[in-house]
């Protein structure tokens, strides 16, 4: 089947469920994980619907942001989302944020629909499905043989600002339910699985997962061990800043952990040639042009930023391209005991899956973390650029001590990747958290004007 056919919404179930689709059209854009916030939802189609257990439907919807495609043409612009919907005649009166609405007509008429991930009973039944591998319609539930999952774990939905939704079971496991679904294996299953086979202890290994085969093959969710008593790097960094504590020892250890993960990735997956600099520069420049179109505040800085990309053509190619994390920042690293762990290998959520699963320069991850130190240092006044600078030095030194090459000696590459990352962040903040826009914009100004 072609990609076009994969993505074309099937119209059959839509008619009788028009009323449900109407409710979802209102509810979906208000969700934190909804990716299309900058564009109106022009059409919403139900792609698949499976009764997962009584009163709970597994649903894939396509939210369109454009016209209906011509027969045989490209799929409509838009995204596919995964929902678990509770549908009850007499739901609990305490649905709160989970409430979606009451269906007026069609086969579900009179039922109240809600986000079933908020419902502990549904969350428990979902874990039961993973405990007993098997199928439900197009859904496949799978787990590692020889790793039986315990019963009776109490679920809670994480309240974090997330791109997906995560359920923690009894502080033993965490199930990430992917929200935006694209055809293919999700790197957040693929990469931790491959790293576990390499014996890399820095990444929690998947123990169970579920996927679909219709309307296309895709990963839907992954269960991993939950790192109890862990704190994420962002919380730790802000704590250190508030207390006036030094963070360089942690940053150095984080650099070592990043290099360990990169080395394991380079063993687990094929390694490419060092990136061809002209092509990298062109891709970065194209991303800048698109971002400046979407966020006009970027426009005055475009000529200055382009020099960082143009300078790439004079750089030596740097380390070979390889699989990387793809969206590395302080929120993606957890400190448990005396060790750093790395989570969330999905890559930058807005990029196509094929791009996220291809090889890139490891400098891209390093740049992501360096940008994160800068984000942390700008969380409260007075800004602490020297704090970010010390973390940067320590992180790169830690990386070099393991990887055998020092990111600071790749100045041109690092500057280009930091610029590219800051451009991505401007777009991300403009779409999701406009109040945060000044943080990457300050970096844009610095990179465009001073180039450091
Ligand atoms: N294995 C884990 N152990 C402990 N906490 C975790 C684990 N995996 C994720 N988390 C927590 O869940 C949050 C969201 O996870 P993440 O994978 O970043 O989801 P998303 O893709 O939705 O952003 C993290 O910030 C972290 O606090
Ligand atoms: O964790 P996600 O995969 O959802 O990543 C997205 O959201 C991040 C914010 O939650 C965003 O990260 C940006 O903000 C962080 C502070 O909240 C900062 O530490 C990062 O450096 C900065 O990029 C990330 O870009 C986005 O992909």
TrEMBL record:
Which terms are listed as keywords in the entry? ATP-binding, Carbohydrate metabolism, Glycogen biosynthesis, Glycogen metabolism, Kinase, Nucleotide-binding, Transferase
Query: EC number(s) of the enzyme?
Result: 2.7.1.175
**Pathway(s) annotated for this protein in UniProt:** Glycan biosynthesis; glycogen biosynthesis
Transmembrane region(s): none
Reactions it catalyzes: D-maltose + ATP = alpha-maltose 1-phosphate + ADP + H(+)
- Domain Maltokinase N-terminal cap, residue spans: 27-119
- Enumerate the Gene3D superfamilies for this protein: 3.90.1200.10
Family statement drawn from the similarity comment of this UniProt entry:
Belongs to the aminoglycoside phosphotransferase family.
Quaternary context: Monomer.
Specify the protein name. Maltokinase
Q: Which organism is it from?
A: Streptomyces thermocarboxydovorans
């Amino acid at each position: 089947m072609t990609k076009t056919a994969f993505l074309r919404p099937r119209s059959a179930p839509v008619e009788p469920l028009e009323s449900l689709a109407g409710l979802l059209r209102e509810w979906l854009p208000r969700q934190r994980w909804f990716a299309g916030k900058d564009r109106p939802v022009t059409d919403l189609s139900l792609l698949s619907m499976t009764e997962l257990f009584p009163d709970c439907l597994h649903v894939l919807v396509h939210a369109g942001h454009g016209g209906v495609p011509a027969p045989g043409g490209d799929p409509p612009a838009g995204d596919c989302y995964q929902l678990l919907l509770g549908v009850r005649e007499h739901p609990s009166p305490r649905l709160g944020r989970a409430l979606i609405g009451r269906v007026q007509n069609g086969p579900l008429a009179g039922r109240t629909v809600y986000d079933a991930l908020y419902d502990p009973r549904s969350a428990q039944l979902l874990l039961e499905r993973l405990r007993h591998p098997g199928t439900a319609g197009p859904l496949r539930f799978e787990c590692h043989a020889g790793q039986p999952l315990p019963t009776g774990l109490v679920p809670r939905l994480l309240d974090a600002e997330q791109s997906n939704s995560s359920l923690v079971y009894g502080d033993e496991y965490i199930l990430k339910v992917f929200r935006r679904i694209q055809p293919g294996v999700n790197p957040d299953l693929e990469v931790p699985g491959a790293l576990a086979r390499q014996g890399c202890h820095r990444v929690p290994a998947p123990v169970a997962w579920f996927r679909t085969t219709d309307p296309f093959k895709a990963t839907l969710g992954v269960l991993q061990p939950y790192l109890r008593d862990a704190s994420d790097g962002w919380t730790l960094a802000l704590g250190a800043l508030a207390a006036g504590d030094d963070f360089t020892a942690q940053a150095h250890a984080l650099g070592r952990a990043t290099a360990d993960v990169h080395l394991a990735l380079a063993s687990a997956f094929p390694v490419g040639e060092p990136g061809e600099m002209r092509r990298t520069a062109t891709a970065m420049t194209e991303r800048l042009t698109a971002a400046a179109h979407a966020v006009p505040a970027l426009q005055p800085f475009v000529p200055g930023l382009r020099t960082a990309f143009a300078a790439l053509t004079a750089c030596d190619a740097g380390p070979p391209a390889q699989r990387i994390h793809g969206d590395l920042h302080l929120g993606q690293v957890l400190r448990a005991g005396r060790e750093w762990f790395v989570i969330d290998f999905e890559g930058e959520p807005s990029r196509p899956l094929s791009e996220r699963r291809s090889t890139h320069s490891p400098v891209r991850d390093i740049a992501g973390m360096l940008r994160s130190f800068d984000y942390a240092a700008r969380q409260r006044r007075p800004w602490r650029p020297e704090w970010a600078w010390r973390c940067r030095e320590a992180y790169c030194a830690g990386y070099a001590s393991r990887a055998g090459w020092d990111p600071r000696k790749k100045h041109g590459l690092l500057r280009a990747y930091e610029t590219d990352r800051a451009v991505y962040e401007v777009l991300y903040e403009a779409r999701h958290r406009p109040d945060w826009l000044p943080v990457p914009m300050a970096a844009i100004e610095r990179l465009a004007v001073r180039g450091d």
